Sequence to fold (311 residues):
Amino acid sequence: MPSRSRFFTGLTLAALIAVAILFFSGHREPARPLVVGFFVLLALALRGHPPLKAFAFTASVLFSVSLSVLYPRVFGTWYGFRLDLLIVPLTQIIMFAMGTTLTLGDFARVLAFPWPVMIGLVLHFTVMPMVAVVITRTFGFHGELAAGVILIGSVSAGMASNLMCYLARGNVALSVTMTLFSTLAAPFLTPLLMSWLAGQYIAIDTFKMMLSIVNMILVPIAAGLVANAILFNDKRWAKNAAVLVGIAAGCVALAAIAIHTPTAKFGTLAPLKTGAVVGCCMIGVVAIAKLIVSVMVGYTGNWMDAALPLV
Fold:
């Protein structure tokens, strides 16, 4: 074991012992920073052990969870700005980045796994919501807490599930396909499940919720598909500086028009406004990025596959 790994392993054990001593002696407040530090050290220690390196991601997740639970105010407001306002646009950017990695061939991939995908979708939107209902009734949850648990059980799969499948040496292609189709089905199935299972706890506007999820997921993914056609296209128009500048300018103009147009004028489609703005802006950014890297700099390598996961 390298000396660095031994160092972090020793610090991790020391932090764990200190947390246990403080917790059981009743000094829980001083234990808070040590709990957060323990998971940071655990992640660093696991990275130094090749057989356990894959669990460093789990430790990183636990670090984020412990930090948010023990210090919730850190994630509340920064300099008067409410951080919860970033949840939707950041989710849209993630969905956009997912869309940029997709092609029409990915949608056709379901033909290779027709029955597993269908069975997975049915189980995903039946077993998970039912388990959530059982949990709420077993523990006696009510109101928003009960609705939140049911919501967790009614949403689509996420990128983390694909990573877990990869770490478990499962069928990653099937997992990615499942995530894609459960994501596409979520805007329609999640509101219906929430109305049916959580309507007794809070008031739910099914149609408004449906549009909200479409705005958060489908609109950015559609914009990502457009960006994919720009990024990975080798045709002459996709490498023409004037065309790329025109695409970027047009997208920025559309985003500006949408921003300055009163929300009321969008009517029932008003919930789709932010998704359209984020999608247009991101397509413009992609066009400018390709203009700079591929046209002006002249780089011919596949830089996109390295940049998109970072986004």
User: Anything to note?
Assistant: The beta strands are 77-78, 81-82.
